[in-house]
């Protein structure tokens, strides 16, 4: 009897356990369904917020949707290769107040970039930073490549001066993958003073956009000499190289450090092959005092939306140079390398004045030709 009672209790408790399990499963199932819908809806709300001003039209719509509206889950996957791009990556901390220059853009960029890396094609550059050496070309390259619609080669390919024999396919192969909407860019400062470069570039494409970063030719020459001196400490003093006869004030225009700064001469050569409107001149001086202003004009010239603004920069007083901000998550801000903005060797006041004299007619002609006064006096 006792045995029977037990077994019947056992049976009903088994039944109870079964019903309990089933109802628990049901609850769980319902909960899961509801929860998922909730998540989906909140994701849609999230995406809607981030992606509402979709600028993609026509055939690009699908791809655009994929890039701009990837769900957070997708994003964490695709952000990785972007992060690997290294120290040149700069963006505002996400959630930064204000307009499109904030974290949103950075996120969109990361997604765009990784899409480009996977699906884009290698293309010949549509824009080149062609000079000048010691003008601030590295800074312009590092600043402009924050822009989501710019993909730049980090190294100097020297194609139109040293490697032209390797052919355009070799050159194209060096380029980063880009989407149709993105600009491919490289910089090689020696192009500006290379006789054959303008012709070669125009035979690649007559529509190539050319950026020249210029700077007071005297300061440029001293900076150039300082760089050489740091590699070869045995070279003669600056004034021995700069003059054929210093007491007569005869400058040695065949010395490269002097020759590069005769901008008007080199520019003539470029204007044999390009319209002036295809060239943009960045002031190396203003690039330091007002990087956002200079980069605003570079973006306009390249037909880009002004995304790089003063929010991206801060001024490092020790270095005397603007640096790029980094998002909180990735530590160090991006300043240019140690060699940039190094202190120049001291040059006698008299030597500087003699060189100013030497350059004056070239400067005047240069200002007239480009229709801008860079104020180098
Ligand atoms: C991302 O790429 C799409 C398609 O290439 C482009 O239309 C869009 O403007 C890009 N987004 C940004 C922020 O540049
Ligand atoms: C520079 O010119 C002066 C005057 O003509 C001359 O006496 C001197 O020898 C010259 N110096 C050099 C290094 O040629
Ligand atoms: C400023 O530059 C100096 C010298 O290069 C560097 O040691 C320092 O960390 C920089 N400070 C900031 C805040 O970037």
Automatic annotation (TrEMBL):
Residues 77-103 are annotated as: Disordered. Disulfide bonds join 323-335. One of its GO terms (cellular component) is Golgi membrane. PROSITE patterns: PROKAR_LIPOPROTEIN. It comes from the Eukaryota. It is found in: Endomembrane system; Golgi apparatus membrane. The chain crosses the membrane at residues 16-34. Gene3D superfamilies: P-loop containing nucleotide triphosphate hydrolases. SUPFAM superfamilies: P-loop containing nucleoside triphosphate hydrolases. 3'-phosphoadenylyl sulfate binds at residues 134-138, 215, 223, 340-344. It holds the Pfam family Sulfotransfer_1. Its EC number is 2.8.2.-. The active site is at 134 (for sulfotransferase activity). Keywords: Disulfide bond, Glycoprotein, Golgi apparatus, Membrane, Signal-anchor, Transferase, Transmembrane, Transmembrane helix. This is Sulfotransferase. The lineage of its organism: Eukaryota, Metazoa, Chordata, Craniata, Vertebrata.
